[in-house]
Amino acid sequence: MKAMKIIPLGLVICSIISVVSCSKNKGSQIADPAALVIKVESTNFLTAGLSEPITIVPRTLSNGSTVDCFKIVSKNTPTDHAQGPWCPSNISDDKTKGGIWLEGGNVYDVDGAFIKNLGTFYKNTTWQMYNTTTGEITKTLTQADCAAAANPNVGVAYKNYCVECLPSYVSSITKTIYIPVTPIKLTSPISFGNGPMSAGPSIRGIAFNGVVFDAPAPANVILAAYTLAPFDDAGGHINMGAGYHYHAATGMSKKITQADGHAAMIGYALDGFGIYERLSASATEYTDLDASRGHSDVTRGYHYHVDKAGANNFINSLAGAYAN
Question: What percent of the chain is modeled with pLDDT above 70?
């Protein structure tokens, strides 16, 4: 007589209910995270910072394809944090009266002491941006001053000036950005350009408040004229042509926290892939980033992580096609 074969109850239940429910959801796993494409969510943007509702329009991308893109018209004005201050007024002022400066990968508070010690900081005694009797800091005070001192060809008249351009000078400037609704990853990244005649784009992307993540600030040009154009604590400042824009991510603009402890999302790159903070919720840095500063996971697909604030940089290149 053959022995009776006993089938475990768990296997019986599994066959009755479904194979999927007893297989640790194998069907939900993605073998290649890079194959997951996350569409841009227009509802992530703060409408108060936009001059008109976001619309979808067809645009030709850098790879030649014509796709639906979000048209985003920004006021260049953050509604989730204050703008400024940038330049302190006296060498006795503390850090609350000034912004920040990015140098050598580090972030420095532009307080009165920083201005006073510029000669020591840059090992050049030509720096003298304050009145030695009163302690008053020499800075731009009018729109005309701002336009002249922020010019790359600034003359000797604005030597040793702290450049502070105010929001009221650029209140009518808007910026239109087109972002593919569905990102398209390329086999080779696209390098950023350095100006209007360059092959690649200049700006890196856009924050949820509508402010542009811009190219690195031309610090060498600024310093060569013995001027200083500080950023506010949010990493932004103003020029007369572009309005308010960011050169560093310091954590002050809108962010979307991630349930799994991944770094928070802060905006989108021009190619539609998400841009996230540099560090995870537990303050760890990602070590598997590619040359563009991106990587993939099964929740977010391909996305970027910004560089450290002191680097005067966001991402290194675009992994996807962007709207021309």
Answer: 89
